[in-house]
Amino acid sequence: MVLVEPSGALNVGSVARVCANFGVSDLRLVAPRCDHLGEEARRMAVHAAGLLEGAALFTSLTEALADCGRVVATTGRCSGEPLPLQTLDAALRWLRQPPRGEPQDRPAAPTSRALVFGREDRGLSNAELLQAGRLLSLDTAAAYASLNLAQAAAVVLHHWHGLRDDQPPPAAAQPQADPCARGVLEALLGDAEQLLLAVGFLHPHTAAARMAKLRALLQRAQVSTAEAALLRGMVRQLRWASTRGRTGTSVGDDPERTP
């Protein structure tokens, strides 16, 4: 469970209690704007104070998700999302899928999974939503669709708790490797941005918008660890060749290159 910039200590304590209710033991807080160890949070956590004390703190969502393969983010908006919205059941079944190994006896992909909840007042930005593989929105009455953070967490975790790891995927689903860790994807995107800036495909004033589209494309594809390594290798070789003005040799053949 990842909370991004929570501002209410009562909410954080309530979420900790809900996590304990449904067997979630990993709570991560991104730049909290409240005292998550204060009296208010502890009062709402009741017997889950240990979760508050063990909560990991991060300065950014990217950092908090670096070791996570499957990520589901929540949003209260009904339109304009950077990725398609899914139902609660569909998103959580995808998140619940057990990790699958890479083809050709490659190592298994990361097993860490994350549910991300945004700020109480404005949720998650598009850039933050693009760090998820799936987006979900809770079905509420149109007249008042906004849920309290702790209430939303309770609804989602209650459904999560009811799912089983041994439930088979839908019949139409084809086995595929697990998505790569977020940190691996961010490293690939960082190398790609440097290459595209260097060759003039990107310009500094439009780079962020274009890279957001590339990030969305890769998130929809949910590339595996092996696929990300292949793409990153291609990007790095192209960048090296563009700086040397020649092709036909690999990065590893460059006598002046340092590791």
Describe the structure.
- With 259 residues, this protein is an alpha/beta fold.
- The chain has 2 domains: 2-162, 3-Layer(aba) Sandwich (Alpha/beta knot); 182-253, Helicase, Ruva Protein, domain 3 (Orthogonal Bundle), CATH 1.10.8.
- It has 10 helices and 9 strands.
- The strands form 2 sheets. It has a 7-stranded parallel β-sheet.
- A hairpin with a 3-residue loop joins strand 6 and strand 7.
- It is elongated, with a radius of gyration of 20 Å.
- It starts with a strand and ends in a 15-residue tail after the last helix.
Proportion in β-strands: 5-15%
Can you tell me the CATH class of the largest domain? Alpha Beta
What is the number of strand segments? 9
SSE order: EHEHHEHEEHEEEHEHHHH
* Helix amount: 40-55%
Number of structural domains: 2
**Architecture (CATH level 2) name of the largest domain:** 3-Layer(aba) Sandwich
State the separation between the terminal residues, measured CA to CA. 36 Å
Spatial arrangement of strands, main beta sheet:
3-2-1-8-4-9-5
- Please count the helical segments: 10
For the largest beta-sheet, the strand count, sense and barrel status come to: 7 strands, parallel
Helix-strand makeup class = alpha/beta
Report the average pLDDT across residues.
85
| pLDDT < 50 stretches | 102-110, 253-259
Query: Can you identify the CATH superfamily of the largest domain?
Result: SPOUT methyltransferase, trefoil knot domain
What sort of overall outline do the alpha carbons produce when their principal axes are compared? elongated
Radius of gyration: 20 Å
- What fold name goes in the CATH topology slot of the largest domain? Alpha/beta knot
